[in-house]
Amino acid sequence: MINNYGVAQCASLCMSFARMDKVTHILSSPLQRSIMTASHAFRPITDRGVKVLLVPGLREVNGSFRCNQGSPIKFLAWQQAEIRKVPINFSLVKAQKGWELIDYTPILETHAFDTIEMIYNMAKEFIKKGELNAEGNVELLVVGHAGMLGALIGYDGKFSPSLPLTRPFP
Predict the structure, then answer these.
(1) DSSP state, 158?
(2) What's the burial of 69, exposed, middle or buried (CB within 10 Å: 0-12/13-18/19+)?
(3) Is 121's pLDDT higher than 60?
(4) Mean of pLDDT values over 33-38
(5) 28 has which bridge partners?
(6) Which of 26, 38, 57, 139 could form a disulfide with 115 if both were Cys (CB 3.0 to 4.6 A apart)?
């Protein structure tokens, strides 16, 4: 969950995010705080009918803290559909057993590689399906957590990306 300060930050982001009309897909961690961030900060995108695709690979992996435990899909579906009225795609979380467990701690580098590859392949599929914006591009908006997002971009913890993630894609 996000608190009132988080909601205010989302409102500020919503007002300042310049590419709101360009985003074709929202990919989010399936943890509640990311879903809530996506629903508050990017409401203009979901109001266009863009679903928030929950991607288990984007969930936080730093530590076995209670806040890093996922919620049952039935609860998430009820909460988002009934309270927030946000369109959610649960297909990937339904397919991956154990994503919601608190002790879900994959090897971060391998996990980051696998997640990048998955996102890359999803983007290729979106292109094949013609799910493009007016400029002819696929623009993915990724909502996640500091640890996992840092791993995806190769953040080394020293305020400069080290970009060690160089595995080639097909």
Answers:
(1) S
(2) middle
(3) yes
(4) 89
(5) 54, 143
(6) 57
User: What letter represents residue 48's amino acid?
Assistant: R
The single residue listed with the structure tokens 């913890």 is 157
Cα three-residue angle 114-117-120, rounded to 5 degrees: 150
Beta-carbon count within 10 A of 36 CB: 22
Looking at residue 126, its amino acid is F
**Tokens 């985003």 label which residue?**
23
Percent of residues, the chain, with pLDDT higher than 70: 76
- Total number of residues shown for the chain: 170
141: alpha, beta or left? (left if phi > 0; alpha if psi -120 to 50): beta
Query: How much is the pTM?
Result: 0.82
Domains and CATH numbers, the chain: 4-153 (3.40.50.1240)
Which residues make beta-bridge pairs with 85?
none
Give 99: exposed, middle or buried? Use CB within 10 Å, 0-12, 13-18, 19+: buried
* Cα atoms in the 13 Å half-sphere on the side-chain side of 51: 12
